[in-house]
Amino acid sequence: MAPGEGRRDWGAAAVAGLLERGIPFDAVFGLNDALALGAMHELLVRGVKVPQDVAVAGFDDIDEAQFASPSLTTVSPGMDEIAERSVGLLIDRIDGLEVGKTAFM
Description:
10% strand
């Protein structure tokens, strides 16, 4: 785990730090696609083959992921469902209905 912000440069810096310290790893998971894309870029610049040597995945499913080379494996958080549920809860609150604690599934 590497602390930082969810930007490409942080993903690249995290991977650079691992490589420079000689820490072995065979996969990287970015908490968002920007981190994962930065990590993937740093690996490729340093001659590490993705996905043959190190698998890289992100979380967001942004359009840019499919245009990376190789394309980035990414997890879709289900934004349509999240938006639909959020709007439904907002409408319930506007209508004065009591909105209980709910969990997204």
